[in-house]
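Cross-posted from the bioinformatics board.
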Amino acid sequence: MSAPLHNVIIGGGSAGYGAAMTLRARDASCRISMITMDSLPFYNRYDLPKVFRGSHDWRKLLAVPPAQYDALDIRLRRASRVVDVNGANRVVTLAHQETIPYDRLLVCTGGRSYLPENLNECAGLIHHFGSFEAAMRAAQALPDGGRVIMIGGDMIGIDLALTLLDTGHHVTLIANEQTFWPHVVAAKQRAALLAALAARGMTVIDANRPVGVVAGKRGKPARCVTLEDGSEITGDVVLSFCGIAPSVEFMLGAGIDIERGILVDPHLHTTDEAIWAAGDVCQIWNDKAKSYNFYHGWGNVRVMGELAARNMSGADEVFDVNVADRIDIDDQGNLRSTFWTH
Amino acid sequence: MAKDSFDPARKSASTDIQIAICGSAGDGTIATGDILKRAAAAMGYNVIAFDLYPPEIRGFGKCISRIRISSVQTYSLKQDSDALVSLNDQHAIAHVGEVRDFGAVIYEDSAVAHLPEGAHISGHIRAAQIPYGFNMRQISEQATNSARSRNIVALGYVAGLFGMPGEIFHKIIAGKFGKKAQSVTDDNLKAFDAGFSAGQATFKLDDVVVGTAAAGTSGADAVMMTGNGAVVRGLLEAGIQSYFGYPITPASSIMERLASDLPRHGGRFLQTEDEIAAAAATVGASYAGSRAATATSGPGLALMTEVIGLGVMAEVPMVIIVSQRGGPSTGLPTKTEQSDLNLCVYGGSGDAQRIVLAPTNVEGCYRCAGMAFEIAEQYQTPVIVLIDLYLSNRYETVIPAKENKFAPKPRVVPQVAAGAEYQRYAFTDSGVSPRALPGDPGLMHTITGLEHSELGRPNGEIHPAMSAKRHDKLASAVNYPGLATCKRFGDSGRVDVGIMGWGSTFGEILEAMQAAQAEGIRCAAMKVVMLSPLPLEPITAFFDDCATVLVPEVNYEGQLAHLVSGAIGRPVVRLNRVTGAPMVVAEILAEIRRLAGVAAPADKQGA
């Protein structure tokens, strides 16, 4: 009897979770290992703004109870970082030098928050929001009614900013070219969207880049952001939402084609026959546009993970955009984005 | 703002957590556990701790230290730990499953060597458990220029993560390494602080909550003691004058401690050539009036039985401490078992009645050892204090009595009427004869292992009367003042299930009984401390109240079950296991439910 195939999924987000569940549904006997840097089982990161509403029980964010992974025999390796994938030998190496052989590999590591280069040296003073722990740290640093300075304002950030307004906080948005990412908006629409945010009570600063962040002086708010015109804004927490950059460094030795993200065909197959990719980490060939494109948003990402899993287990399906890219303002002046559909 | 009931940062009014530390011999596993339990005791918590280590003195065997830290009275270790610290994944992987849902698994996550799939603990952590990997080795090297202190780094991480006060650990560490070079203390303090900072900086995702310490418990007054340590303390307070012994696991630490402490108290210590000599020297010293004791385990006791018979026949008080391990023969030297009850109660030739006391916790070890001399002298017979490896090596917080209750009372020298001959074995109402010591003027007498007359001279004709005397004189021991020879717990009156136990297993029995009560099952438990003679009256009354009596024991045949059912003619339900590990609370609870006809509550996830 041959050993069951080992499906290894790198990434524990929407795509990885959807892929794992799909693989198990299609093959009861295969081995499934999910490797993620996160400490928690899969939860929807779009729900993270809830921590600012007092929802501090991460268990309520989980997609399924933890016991479900055991019941489905899905080996979940958390707090684990992949440092290398050897496509020739079909082996994944983790940071603690454990090697994991695979028969089929799915990469869906998403991306890490992008921080404008000129702010890199201030990174320690800027809160992150990419995980439950990071969200909680930001929430704990923010007093009731406190002031948040948000740099950029991609759609994840805008969602959080609206929650913060609802919960009695003050938000200053320092807009830049990543504001409303991943939507690509024209100048006129951009101005209207910013005006809508201002109408909701947000302080919006545009065309004035942040050049530094320092800790606040004793007795003053905890952070002070300096703008390029020399003016200063103070707040309790500084958050940066400037889109994400695909996490692909560990794949550089895998022997597959990588541009900004991992290049895949419409079947989400890479140039290695045993490797697939899905989610924010991959650029998918669009035959009409004759280019490799990113497709962001929960609806797209989840579909990609499930589709890749079906193709890994014998299907021959092609990715079609699940959720169109659209942002507008409704009659009440509220922003509506397909990115938030989940 | 209203928050969820689960908040990683919350503080609770009570504490009941168990931390397991697992490593290889040489990793400092036991030392780390020792510091943690002493620190917890100093904080004012109740502590129960138990170490398992390989039979080899040094090598690569598995060591595991489990420490239960509680603000309420607890009686045993928990089946599942709240946190596991791995100092060696090869050994710790097998114990990941013992960590409860939403508990913590703490491990080394820096690269040490190339590992095949499955060799790192992170791949074995269940989805409901919280992984905390950090660079123990690197932090140790940065703090002390050596990776040797990574166990102390891990300890600091635990303290920082769970919000324990670092300054108390500082005191314990300084005290532990105080006799070594100052640099050793300094390095360990640096390692602790580095780990502490890492633990504090870690975002806490588990729900392991360290709350307030035990109400009314003063950390300054409480001391950590093992069962063997408590035995030594009891013997010393009782004025032990002579100790004769031969080393054997798990009783050796009694001998080791007395070797250093007894001479300082003016006593005599001798390591004999074997257990037979140890018992013989003990009975000889006791005959001469010295408070004398020996300690051994099952294989040693098997050799001592002939001499114990001499003690019975010659009516010489002597104290034998027996710490059981897995048997028979060499058996399982470092594993616990309760399989020497029969040997202690019945072992030897003839009708050799003796008193056997089986304490159920560390404080009980102190009390039974402390009272053993007085009881032995009162009844002029050998007294066996029967414990086991689990109790010998188990640490508990004990608040020692402020005054010594075991100090020897002045001896009453027999008075003989003028012209009368002193009768060492005179028949009396109590069956206990006036005891003279060699050298008492005018009280010369004969002593022998042969059956003897009142004068001590060989006499076979008197055997029926003397047999009755030696038997009957022990009857009142079941009501010995100040000694709870058996005790009932739980619901009063009629109950569905009674649980009877002895020795170290009784802690698990109490925990199971309380859990069953919480589920609405009417139940009670009885601990039997005096195994010989058996306190039949309260035992019978207990059986009268119970629809069914369950007897959990860490032996194969059910030796207490056999003893009790034989003595009172009532059926019992046996629950036995011989895995080398203590009885499991969940197994007892499951059996209680089965006997009560109650289904287990639906499985609940979470604490």
